[in-house]
Please model this.
Amino acid sequence: MRETRLDTARIRAARPMIDPMFLDTPLFPCPALEPHLGCAVSVKLETANPVRSFKARGTELVASLLADGGARAVVCASAGNLGQALAWSGRRRGLDVTVVAPRSAPAAKLDRIRALDAGLELVDGDFDLARARAAAMAGHDGIRLVEDSLDVETCEGAATIGLELAGAVPSYDAVLIALGGGALATGVGHVLKELAPGVEVICVQPLGAPAMTRSWRRRRVVTTGPTRTIADGVAGRRPIPVVLDDLLLVADDAVLVREESIVAGLRMLLDHAGLVVEPSAALGVAAILEDRERFAGRHVVTIVCGANVDMDAYRRWIGAPIPPPP
Amino acid sequence: MRETRLDTARIRAARPMIDPMFLDTPLFPCPALEPHLGCAVSVKLETANPVRSFKARGTELVASLLADGGARAVVCASAGNLGQALAWSGRRRGLDVTVVAPRSAPAAKLDRIRALDAGLELVDGDFDLARARAAAMAGHDGIRLVEDSLDVETCEGAATIGLELAGAVPSYDAVLIALGGGALATGVGHVLKELAPGVEVICVQPLGAPAMTRSWRRRRVVTTGPTRTIADGVAGRRPIPVVLDDLLLVADDAVLVREESIVAGLRMLLDHAGLVVEPSAALGVAAILEDRERFAGRHVVTIVCGANVDMDAYRRWIGAPIPPPP
Model:
C-alpha cells in the first residue's frame, strides 16, 4: 500500500506559520443536543474567525510559505471558502490574490472575496472551467496555483485540527468529518490515526454529492454527474486520485446523508447550540440523525467546519423565515 | 479614593483553577460588520462553551476554591446564566448545587439548570425574594451563598477575559462591555486599566435597566423601579455599593441604549457575523449604532457575553420568525 502524503512532523511545524487566531479553536460539549441525538456531542468550532471556516489553516500555511519564498501573487479557483481564506491570508502577507469563480456562485460568497481585496475573475461555466482558467493564469503569469486537497498544504493545514483533537481531554469515541475534496478528512484522519488510533474516523457526505464516498467504498476513483445538494462546500464530482489514496489509509467509514437530514441538522445546531452554520457543517449531526443506534450512548465530536451561508437561503432551508433585514 | 477589591496577581492565579475550555476564547475581527457599523469590530466570543456564557469563568473559580476547601454544597439565586454556570462547575467537582429562581424566569433557562442536575427551587416573587431565600438556605444549612458581582471571585473570574484582551495583538482602541451587576465590567476594566491603559473601557446598559449607569454617573448608588428590557442578563435595579466603587475606578464611560438598538444589534450579529446571542451580548453593537461618530474609523472590541436565549423570544425580537421546530 502507498504511503500517505501527509507528515505529522510537518503538520506540527505548520502551527507557527498559522495566525494563532485560527488555531486552538473551541472544543466543547453541547449538553442541550444530547436528548435530541441520544449521544454526547461535542463541537469543534471552526467558524469563530474572520473567514468563518477552517480553510484559513491551509491558506495561512500556503501564504506563509509563498511569502517566505519571495512570491508576489497566488491564484485559486473557488466559489467559496477557499477563495475567501486565501484572500485573507494573502492580503496580510502582501500577496496579490486572484480568485476565479463561476459567475453562478452565491453572491454572498463572491462579495466577501471582493471585500477582502482579492481580484475576482468570473467565468461562464462550472467549477471545472474556473479551475482550468485559474491554471492557465498561473501558467501564463508564473504564479502559484492553489488547489484544494491536491496541494498537501491544504490537507496539512486542516490536519492541525487533528493535533488539537488528539490532545483533547476527555477523550471521545468518534469524530464526524464533512467530506468534500478530502483535505479536512485526510488531514484530521491522518493525525488521529497516528496519535489517537482508538477514535473512529467517520466521513460524511451528502447523498446528492457522493463521489468521494463511492470512491472510498470501491477503493478507486468514481466520478458522478452533476451534484444535487445544498451543501455547496462539499459538492464535488471528480475525486483526486492521490487524495483518495490518503483517505483510504485513515477513514474508518464514509456515510451518505439525505438533504432533509442536513436541514434537520442545521435546525438542531441553531435551536440547541445557537450556531448558524452552512450545510456542510451540519453533515455530522445529519449522520447521527440517520443512524441513532450506531451512536447511542457514545461521545461524538463533530467538526463545525464553516458558516459562510447566504442568509436568504438559510431562512428558506430552515423552514422559512428569519425575515430579511429592513 | 478607595482601593479596588480586585487583584491582578490573584486574577492570574485564577486561570489554572478554570477549566481550559472556558479560557482563551476566540477574539476575531468581523470584517462583514464593518461597512454596517463604520468601524472595525472584533468579537470576544464567550458563548462557545457548554453553558454559553462567560459566567463559568467565575463559577469555576468559586467551585474550585470550595472543593479544595472540602465544601459539599453551594447555593445561589439566579434565573439565568449564573445558575447554569454554577450547576456546571459544581457538578464537575462533586458539589451539590442549589439554584433559587423566580417562578417567572424563562423556562428555557430553568430547563438548562435542571438538566445540569442542580436543585432548582422556585419562589413566587422577584429576584430579590429569590436572593433572600437563597441567603436563608445558606445560613440554615451552613453552605456558601454565591452572589454575582458582590463575591470578588465572580469579578476576578470574569477578569480573566481582561488578561486575554490585554495580551491581544493587534491592539484596539476601545472595548464595549455589557453592564449589569458589574462583575464583567469591573473585572475586565480592572485588568485593562492596569495592563493596557490606553484602551477605552465603555460600559453599555439598556435604557430600560439603567441603575448602575446612573449610579456611575452620580458616583453614588441610585436604585430604580422595575426594569423594562429584553436584556434580562443585565436587568438589575439595586447596584451593590462596593461594586460601584470598583467600577468608578476603571470605567471610562457608561452609556445607555434603546431597546430597538439592542434588537438591531441582535440582527446584525446574526446577519453579518452568524451569531445567535442573547440581548445583553448585543449591547456593544447597539452602542455603536447609537453613536457612529464616536466610533468612526476606530477598532472596537465587543464582548459577546452570552447566548442563552429563548428561541421563541428570539424569533419574535428579530422580526418574526424562524418557525418553531416541527
Notes: The first helix of chain B runs from residue 8 to 14. Chain B has a mean pLDDT of 94. The longest strand of chain B covers residues 96-102. Chain B has two domains: 8-53+152-317, 56-146.
